[in-house]
Amino acid sequence: MADHITIRPATGTWVVRAGGAVLGETTRALELIEGDYDPVIYFPRGDVAMTFLDASDRTSTCPHKGQASYYSIVTEGGTLQDAVWSYEDPKDAVAEIAGHLAFYTDRVAVEQV
Q1: What is the dihedral of CA 113, 68, 48, 107, to 10 degrees?
Q2: Which of 43, 58, 83, 86 has the smallest CB count inside 10 Å?
């Protein structure tokens, strides 16, 4: 794993909400800590209601994790553009986050319950 990245199970139950709707709930979340950045909670894709997500054309590349793809969240209240990201085929050092989704916490609520 990259020296400045730590991935570990996130203890407890985690929920993600947007536009008043619960998008996901899991006891299998991962916490990724990278350098001085705030920790990021990654939800297993199977624990997220994918019907709320619309794949975006946006991509970005992290030298440590690989290429990220993005999703917009579609709710009755509107669309949160590119509010979710995923590393579909992450680099070997962070392979644990494959099949997981992360959410921009300035757009949705990600909380431990």
Answers
A1: 50
A2: 58
pTM of the shown model: 0.94
**Does residue 18 contact residue 108 with C-beta atoms inside 8 Å?**
yes
Residue 30's CATH number: 2.170.150.40
**Rounded CA separation 77/86 (Å):** 24
pLDDT in tens, 18-74: 988 899 999 999 999 999 999 999 999 999 999 999 999 999 999 999 999 999 999
Decide: 92 and 68 in contact? Cβ < 8 Å.
Answer: no
Q: How many domains does the chain have?
A: 1
The domain containing residue 40 runs over which residues? 5-112
CA distance 48 to 29: 11
Q: What are phi and psi of 46, to 5 degrees?
A: -65, -15
Structure tokens at 100: 């997981």
